[in-house]
């Protein structure tokens, strides 16, 4: 439980820091701060990352070897999340703008890196 | 390594007894005859289809510009394109004189406004608009589009902008795949039955057994290892024989070209991918995400590359099979087309001879591609289950 | 690439996946498993029979060498027995010879002793006989001769001379 808790805290903290930096950069660039569902993107990515990490830790003994597969599956899940919740909204004006792209991609990348770290941690055990 | 294996593959036939060789030569002869008659066949259907295309354009409104004005080269190109395409009916050839199509219609299944199921005969080979539950559909370049009752296509710079319903039809390729599956099932269950009588193979099993043992001893065991290979045998054998059979039939003048359809090779590659990832052991994932034995910055650099490699490998697999078979068909059909471009008897004879030669090479390629696909699949499975790799 | 994506048909992909999975499943159950099982069974049988043939061959050679060694052993034993018998015979003979010699010696010795004893006895007897004979002679002479002293004296001298001679 404590390991899982540690991971959750790590992921949340990392994403919070990223969010802070992200907002700061947006401020410097004089872009609207909380546009493009940026909050949803962060919350959703963190939630999915935690969900995947829980999955990685709680897999039954027989599926221990398939954790990598679970990880990949989780990535596909995230793509599904992106297409369901963001793609249509981003595409409303016909193209995906840079800020729109980063609004999803940065939290996605941050969560992915943290997840990968957890996976490596688990695999090295 | 692969050439060595191929030589072995060829020589393996020499080991099996004479009767088997006889059987094999008989099968080869049959195929050779089919290949030889292909140019003749295609000549007939080529002319026929050209004619049918022109009738099509007059009947369906807003079709492409009439094709009467096409040059011979364009005509050949169009014919090749048509030959390589999937279709909604099983079309063998068209008689120009009477304008009758030889073949049979297949089932059209569309996911649009519920499920629309009707026979492809309603399209009249793309000549008319099909109506189903108040919706109208028409064919354009072998694809189903939603249209109005008159069959109008909204054309913008050569592309049709009509709505495309999700097409789950039993197309020519789907039908062929079903037929091949049936052939494989009959062939191999028949072979399996012969083992019930005695452990010594008889009948078709005599010819098939060396091939099965080849897949096991030359593909599966060296790449996956003695310990794990058994789990993957069913998949490897099925892939090998499926691709081989499909490739061989692609060489016949029936016009069945399943492996040169990207969807089929994609499906095969996806299955290989999923099986590889799912059977991936701890070691395999560790090699992807945190490569052992290299410094930490290298590990971080390698992780995305390796992860990308996971996807690139099956992608290479699907493109390789698709491209090889399609290229073979295009070369073959271009050579056949050359016969009509050369008006002199020397050029025509030359390209006839060349097309026969290429046909024989394609026979080899058919087996080779099946071998390569199976071999690489086994290699990926092997890397997934490897317990400790040597570096 | 664009053309490839355009060519991609979801329907065909769907059917290929479904049909292929069904094909794998059916072939696995009704073809690959029985075929591979019988092939490996046959291979096992061949290997086992080859192994057992090899083993039989090995056993045979082992048996042969065992027989040979048995024969050699038997020969050695026979030789040893013969040698022993010969030794025993020699010993018996030599023993018997020794005993016989001893016995003979003993007999000879005993004979010697007996002869000696008899000789001694005979001598003694002779001596006593002679003594008594002499005495009787002497008595007779004495009775006849001893009528005169002279005669007595000459007789005594004569006797003494005789005695010395004896």
For the structure shown, list the relevant keywords.
heterotrimer; A: 125 residues; mainly alpha; globular; C: 166 residues; 3 helices; rod-shaped
What is the number of independent domains of chain C?
Answer: 1
Radius of gyration of chain B: 24 Å
Low-confidence residue ranges of chain C = none
Number of domains of chain B: 2
- Between the first and last Cα atoms of chain B, what is the distance in angstroms? 20 Å
β-strand percent of chain C reads under 5%
Shape of chain C: rod-shaped
Reported for the largest beta sheet of chain C, the result is:
none
Number of strands of chain B: 10
Count of β-strands of chain C:
0
* Sheet/helix structural class of chain C: mainly alpha
Q: Greatest contact pair?
A: B-C, 45 and 33 residues
Shape of chain B: globular
Name the average pLDDT of chain B.
77
Spell out the helices and strands of chain B N to C. HHHEEEEEEEEEEHHHHHHH
Please provide a written account of the structure.
The complex is a heterotrimer of chains A (125), B (391) and C (166). With 125 residues, chain A is mainly α. In chain A, 79% of the residues lie in helices and 0% in strands. Chain A has 4 helices and no strands. The model of chain A has no long low-confidence stretch (mean pLDDT 81). Chain B folds into 2 domains: 2-27 and 174-385, no CATH class; 107-169, no CATH class. Chain B is 64% helix and 11% strand. The longest helix of chain B is centred in the C-terminal third of the chain and has 46 residues, at 296-341. Chain B has 391 residues and is mainly alpha-helical. Chain C contains 3 helices and no strands. Chains in contact: A-B, B-C. The interface between B and C is large, with 45 and 33 residues.
Question: What topology emerges from the helices and strands here?
Answer:
The complex is a heterotrimer of chains A (125), B (391) and C (166).
Chain A: H1 2-28, H2 38-58, H3 67-90, H4 98-124
Chain B: H1 2-15, H2 18-59, H3 72-84, E1 89-95, E2 100-105, E3 107-111, E4 115-119, E5 130-132, E6 135-140, E7 143-147, E8 155-156, E9 159-160, E10 166-167, H4 172-197, H5 204-224, H6 229-250, H7 262-279, H8 282-289, H9 296-341, H10 345-385
Antiparallel strand pairs in B: 1-2, 3-4, 3-10, 5-6, 6-7, 8-9
Chain C: H1 2-7, H2 10-145, H3 149-165
